[in-house]
Automatic annotation (TrEMBL):
It catalyses: 2 Fe(II)-[cytochrome] + nitrate + 2 H(+) = 2 Fe(III)-[cytochrome] + nitrite + H2O. This is nitrate reductase (cytochrome). Catalytic subunit of the periplasmic nitrate reductase complex NapAB. Receives electrons from NapB and catalyzes the reduction of nitrate to nitrite. One of its GO terms (molecular function) is nitrate reductase (cytochrome) activity. It comes from Billgrantia endophytica. The chain holds residues 253 to 943 of 988 of the full protein. Keywords: 2Fe-2S, 4Fe-4S, Electron transport, Iron, Iron-sulfur, Metal-binding, Molybdenum, Nitrate assimilation, Oxidoreductase, Periplasm, Repeat, Signal, Transport.
Length: 691
């Protein structure tokens, strides 16, 4: 007799990869993921997705998934039950705090976990342990962009929505390989170009797909974007193209800022950036005469030793041209991870409670203390350390214990050698993850966590859009959702919060954080979403700054800047500049995409892009193996010869090898936010052979 197949189940979820936040139905039968079905109601993406969202889900049922807690004993891991593992973690964290004080512990929350899980991570750090040493991977990518927005306009998120980007007259992409890293947004721009004649300006050292489609493509020398943006601002003032009405009404510091532009002449910009005077003028004219401009930027700007300043310069340019607060305008840092925006919004930051209340602000501290039922003195008002400084402090012996959730710090942090040395020195380390990651190999306890499709929760996408996702499958084996693990751990440390569902965590956060006052699971039901800030009556904010800016006088601030040399530069020995970034088919350390065979096979191994000029100068043929040596270490890999890169710039995708690019990168970083300057890496190249 033929057995009846179980029913196909359709469940709404949100993509676990990039910050576009594509939502779709996932069709499953038992544990089989049959297909991803986009639907028109999905607010960020409609019926669009990319290769990762559509096909990169094999990792969910991978046989490499962790299904039991692991405890290190005599140098090896053994399987353990949850009670034993959580008791051990609770006891050791409290012992370290007792012996060395609260700031001897550090917590790294996950930019892939939910908002509710980010909230619990920082609540454990702040309320139970008493430290602000809590952060997420935005430290490695987008903190400089947020800093630039804080300095100028006030909110640490995109000014508007993907619809605004679609309807802008001009879109400027700076240091953003949008077609590969945010494919659905790139598709919207391409459609707007075709259907509405939208103009696109690309500013990037690399000739990527959007550069080929651009109306203007500028290829400035590395680390000179601040000069370029400031020269455009100066030109706009000098030629009557600054929006003086907007500036008079909405912006402070105009005269001081204008004075600060004095050095940024077209001559200086041409000399430093390598972009011709004529191209600079054409760009300024196109931006200055447009009715609406959206400016998108990403890690090509932020991962430099002056990423905060360059982000600020870009936001300054938008203020000069009045491009905030109207449909089709604004600054858009393109968030990388699916929930890197939410992890920061919900408090995994060294100096901010959920909703960006500063830890040193007494009123905020009082409100959070009241919300959590303690006295204000129970919460530290000293900003903590971010990821990068926590790891450095561990290497110096100042941080004794770390708790890392879903982050591949051993792969992602700069200068791998220091990171591994720091991990070796820790007295106690916990990793909560789906896989025995490179980071987990150093842990004393590994707790098996569930991916988004095995739990309930919410994410925030790059537009500030909060969306719910649902349990598609039950947790695999004995793995558990992070929010359950953290709730159980807190109870073992004397704080029985009793959350039975993530909605209760969101309710608590909404009660305390004004930014999320009207957020609730009911209002997020179905395909509904809310864009923060959300008023108590549920009114959300698709477009920011329509009634002014969130500063005391309701105005934005122009922020004067000086250009500084990059921290690491080329010289006679290390004569090549190493650029790096992501590819459409892969994601970060490839822990997920690398376990999705069909996607991985599209580009199965690493390579370095070499310009035709350099190839000819050094006798390199397509596929020739080369050794790249930085001031830290060497790697060997094959070459691809392409005009995507020019002159003495190389490009290396970050996804391959045990430690990606980071055996080569150094510890120089942005002094404002301590984001490592991954893009400022000088190398030398030796030709090996064709293997
Ligand atoms: Fe959408 Fe990004 Fe996921 Fe692709 S990776 S489906 S663009 S959210």
């Amino acid at each position: 007799m033929k057995m009846r197949q179980p029913e196909i189940k359709r469940t709404k979820t949100v993509c676990t990869y990039c910050g576009v936040g594509c939502a779709f139905e996932m069709w499953t039968r038992d544990r089989h993921i049959l297909k991803v079905q986009p639907v028109p109601e999905a607010p960020a993406n409609g019926i669009s997705t990319c290769i990762k969202g559509k096909f990169a889900w094999d990792f969910v049922n991978s046989e490499k998934r962790l299904t039991m807690p692991l405890i290190r004993e005599n140098g090896r891991f053994r399987e353990a039950g949850w009670d034993e593992a959580l008791d051990l973690v609770a006891r050791r964290l409290l012992e370290v705090r007792e012996a060395h004080g609260p700031d001897s512990l550090g917590f790294i929350g996950s930019s892939k976990a939910s908002n509710e899980e980010a909230y619990l991570t920082q609540k454990i750090a702040r309320l139970i342990i008493g430290t602000n040493n809590v952060d997420n991977s935005s430290r490695y990518c987008q903190n400089p962009a947020t800093q630039g927005l804080f300095r100028t306009v006030g909110y640490g998120g995109d000014a508007g929505t993907i619809k605004d980007i679609e309807q802008a007259e001009v879109v400027v992409l700076v240091g953003s390989n949008t077609a590969e890293n945010h494919p659905v947004i790139a598709a919207r721009i391409k459609a707007a170009q075709k259907l509405r004649g939208q103009k696109v300006i690309v500013i990037d050292p690399r000739r990527h797909e959007m550069a080929d489609r651009a109306d203007i493509f500028l290829r400035p020398n590395a680390s000179t974007d601040l000069i370029l943006a400031s020269a455009l601002s100066r030109y706009l003032f000098d030629h009557g193209l600054a929006d003086m009405e907007f500036l008079d009404q909405w912006v402070n510091g105009v005269e001081e800022y204008r004075d600060s532009l004095e050095p940024f002449t077209l001559e200086f910009a041409e000399k430093m950036t390598g972009v011709s005077r004529q191209e600079l003028i054409e760009t300024a004219e196109m931006i200055g005469r447009a009715g609406s401009v959206c400016l998108l930027w990403a890690m090509g700007i932020t991962q430099h030793s002056h990423g905060s300043d360059t982000s600020t310069a870009l936001s300054n340019l938008l203020l000069v041209t009045g491009n905030y607060g109207k449909p089709g305008t604004g600054g858009y840092p393109m968030r990388g991870h699916n929930n890197v925006q939410g992890a920061s919004d919900f408090g995994c930051l060294k100096d901010r409670y959920p909703g960006y209340d500063h830890v040193a602000d007494e009123e905020s501290r009082k409100r959070w203390a009241e919300g959590w039922g303690v006295t204000p003195e129970a919460l530290s008002n000293e900003p903590g350390k971010g990821n990068f400084l926590m790891v450095q402090a561990a290497d110096k012996g100042d941080i004794k214990a770390m708790y890392i959730i879903g982050e591949e710090t051993a792969f992602s942090d700069a200068n791998t050698h220091n990171v591994l040395s720091a991990f070796e020195k820790l007295d106690f380390m916990v990793v909560q993850d789906m896989f025995l990651s490179r980071t987990a190999e150093f842990a004393d306890v590994v707790l098996p966590a569930s991916p988004s499709v095995e739990k309930e929760g919410t994410f925030v996408n790059t537009e500030r859009r909060i969306q719910r996702f649902h349990e598609v499958l039950p947790p695999l084996g004995d793995s558990r959702p992070d929010w359950r693990i953290l709730t159980d751990l807190a109870a073992r440390m004397g704080h029985d919060w009793g959350y039975e569902h993530p909605s209760r965590i969101m309710d608590e956060c909404a009660r305390i954080a004004p930014m999320f006052a009207g957020v609730s699971y009911d209002r997020l039901a179905g395909w509904n979403s809310q864009l923060w800030p959300v008023a108590a009556d549920g009114t959300d904010s698709p477009l920011l700054y329509t009634d002014g800016f969130p500063n005391e006088d309701g105005k934005a601030n122009l922020f004067p800047l000086e250009w500084r040399m990059p921290e690491e530069t080329t010289d006679a020995e290390y004569d090549l500049s190493l650029d790096n970034g992501r590819m459409r088919e892969h994601f970060q350390a490839s822990n997920q995409t690398g376990r999705s065979e069909g996607v991985w096979q599209q580009v199965p191994r690493g390579f370095v892009e070499v310009s035709p000029e350099l190839a000819s100068e050094r006798g390199i043929e397509e596929g020739t193996w080369v050794r790249l040596t930085s001031r830290r270490d060497s790697i060997e890999l094959p070459t691809v010869i392409t005009d995507r890169v020019a002159g003495k710039t190389l490009f290396l995708p970050i996804h391959f090898g045990k430690f990606g690019i980071n055996t080569l990168t150094g510890e120089h970083n942005d002094p404002d936010v301590q984001t490592p300057a991954y893009k400022e890496t000088a190398v030398k190249l030796e030709v090996l052979s064709k293997r």
